[in-house]
Amino acid sequence: MSDNLESFRAEIAEWIAANLPADLKGIPHDEDAICWGGRNWVFKSDAQRDWLERCHGRGLTCPRWPTEYGGGGLSRAQEKVLRDEMVKAGAPSPLESFGIWMLGPALLHFGTDEQKATHLPDITAGKIRWCQGYSEPGAGSDLANVQTRAEDKGDHWLVNGQKIWTSYADKADKIFALVRTDRDAPKHLGISFMLIDMNTPGVTTKPIQLISGASPFCETFFDDVVVPKEGAIVGTQNRGWDVAKYLLTHEREMIGGGGGGLTAGSSLAEMIGTRDALVSEDPIFRAEAMQLEVDAMAFGLTMERYKDMAESGQGVGDASAMLKYYGTELNKRRHEIIMSARGLDALDWDDGAAAPWLRTKANSIEGGTSEVMLDIISKRVLELPSK
Amino acid sequence: MEKLVDTEDEAMLRDAARGFLDNFSPVSAFRKNRDEGRAFDPALWSEMGQMGWAGVLVGEGDGGSDMGHRAAGILCEEMGRTLTASPFISSAVIAATTLRAAGSDHLSSIATGETLYALAVDEGSKFAPSRTAMEARADGNAFRLTGAKAFVAEGSTANRLLVLARTSGSAGDEQGLTLFDIDASRAGIKQDSVETIDYRDFINLSFDNVEATGDDVVGDVDNGLAALAPGLRAGQAALAAELGGLSAGIAAITLGYLKERKQFGRHIGSFQVLQHRAAHLFAEIEVTTSAIAAAGRALDEGSENAALLSSLAKARATQTAKLAVMEGVQMHGGIGMTDEYDAGFFMKRARVGAEWLGDYGHHAAIVAAHRGL
Predict the structure, then answer these.
(1) Acyl-CoA dehydrogenase/oxidase C-terminal domain: from which residue to which, for each copy (chain B) (predicted)?
(2) What integer is the mean pLDDT of B246-257?
C-alpha cells in the first residue's frame, strides 16, 4: 500500500478518534440506529446529530462525491481505508439514504449542473430524504411495464398512477420515480426518470405491513399530481430506462454486499449467540454452518475482488448480478441456520431473530429477483441463446 | 492485501501460459498421454523448466524465477483449464516451498526441473498428516524408516522424496513427526503401482528399514509438521487454483455445447432451466476464483491468514469443481458419458483433486474453527 494511503489512514483514524461521540462508539448496527436525515428527521440523540454534522463537515457522508456538493472527493482506495477505520473505531455510519445510494450516483452520471447543485448538497447534509418509485402492481420483475403516466401539460407534467414497494415513502421528502411519458413508444423507450416532491398535493402513501411485522414499504398514489417541468427529468426524456438500469446495478451491488474482505460482517457464531449443547453437537447444524462460513468468507473476498476490478478499470457490468444473487441467497441461508440454532427461543418475536430472518426473504426479491439475476447472467454474461 | 485482480505482470504471465498451453498442452495432449500410458510428457516439463515455471518459487540466487505463489496459482489455473499433467504442484510448489523455508541446497535442481520431488505423507484413505504411523527409528546417528505411504503423487517418476515419519509419540500426535528429504532410489523403498482414475502418476510406497541420516532431516527432528506446513499450504492453494481452472475449463466447454446443441428445434442453451444452472455455476466459479486469488496473495505477503485462506480456497475449489464436472456431464447428456469426449477427464481429475491434500470437510473445519464454530 502506498505511503499516501498510509498517511491518509493515520489522518482519518485521528479524525475519527477526535470526533466520534463516545455515546455512538460500538453502537449496534441495527435498523433503529440508522440516521436517515430529512425534513422531518428527529435525531435519536445529540450524539447522532453531532456525528452527522461533523462527518458532513469533513465530506464523509458521501466520501467519493465531489467536494463542491459536500462530498469528500476521496478515491475508492481512500474510501476503503475510511470504512476500515470506521469499523475499527466502532463508528456507525453517519447517514444512510436512497439519495446517497441511488439518486446521487444517477445525478452525478446523468444530471445537469443545475440538478446536481439543487439536490446533491441536501443529500450530503442529510436535509432531504429520498425514496425510490420503481415497482408497480403490474411492473415487478417486468419493471419496464410501468404504467404511471406523466402527461405533458405545457409548463408541467400531470402524474397519475400507483407505485408499490416504495421503501419508506411515508417518511421521505421526495421521490425519484419511473413514469411513462410516451405511451406510444415501445415500453423501454417511453419511460422518464422523474423527481417529485412528496409534499405535492395528490401524493399519498400507505404503509404495507410485512410478514416480519415491519412496514418499511408503502404503496404510493399519484392523483393529478402537478410537477413543474423545470429540472423534473433526469437524463433524456423517454430514456429513463437507461438511468434505471444504471441504478439497478448500484442497487444490486448494495444489496448483495454489506462490505467485503476476509472478516466482513459478524460470524455466524456471534450472530447465534449462546447455543444449546444439543445444537453444537448436531451434525447437520455443524455441516450447514461450516458450509455457510466457507461460502460467506469467499463471498466477502469476491466483493473485494469486484471492487478491485472496478478500481482497476475492468468493467464489472452485468456480472454484478452475480453479487446480488449470491449475496442475498447466502443471507437467507445464514438466517435459516440462526433460527434453527436458536430453536424455540427464536419463535418469540422479542428474541429478535425472527424479524431479520423474515426480512431476508425479501433480499432475493427486491432490486431484481434471484431468477432475474440468473437471467441477466445467462443472457448478458454467458450469452446463451434465446432460441 | 494487494488487489485481488491480476497485476500487469500477472496478466502477461497468464496470457503467455494460456498461449503456450493451448498450443502444446490442450486436452488432446492429455488424452495422448493417457493412451500412451504416461502420466506426463517429459518434453513439456522440460519446456516449463526453461520458461521458469519449475523455479517459480525458487529464489533467483538458486536459479529460480521467484515469481511467487500468486504466479504459481495463475499457472495452475491455466494448467487446470487444459488438464495439463505435470509434476508442478509436487515439485515446483510443495517441495520448493518446504525446502526453501528450511534453507535446503536442493533448490537449484528443482528450478531447472531436473530433480523431481514427490511428497509421501498419506497412509490411510484420508489426508491426516498427524496420523502418520511410519516409524523412523533412531539408529546411532541415523534413522531407519519402516512403513507404508499411500497415493504418493509423482511417486514413480520422482527422484527424491519428502517423507513424513514418526520419530516419537504415536499416530495422532501432532508432535513427534520428522520430515526427511531422501533419494527415491534408496535401498528398501519399494514401489507398488496404482492405476488412478485420473491417469496421473500416483503410487504406493513401502519402506523397509530405509536409512536416513541427520543430514536428510528437513527442519527439526520431532517437528516435521512445522517443517512441512509452508509446503502444504502452498500446495493446497496451488491445487485449489488447478481445480478452479479445471472448473472454468469444463464450464467453457459446456457453455459451448449449450450454444451449439439443438433439441426440440432450438438450442438447448435457450432453455431457462439450463440457463439458470449455467448462471449458478458461473457464480460459484466467480466466488471460488476470489478465494484462490486471496490465498496466493496471502502466501506471497506472508500473512497470518495464509493457512486459513489456503484452506478456504481448497474447500471452495473442491466443491465448485464437483459442481462444474457434474453439470458438465449432465448438460452434455449421453456424449458426456463417453470416453471419446473430454468431460470425463475433468470429472476424474476433479475427484482426485478433491481428496489430495485434504478434502472439503478437512478444510471447511479449519475455516469454521477460525470463525468460532
Answers:
(1) 223-369
(2) 98
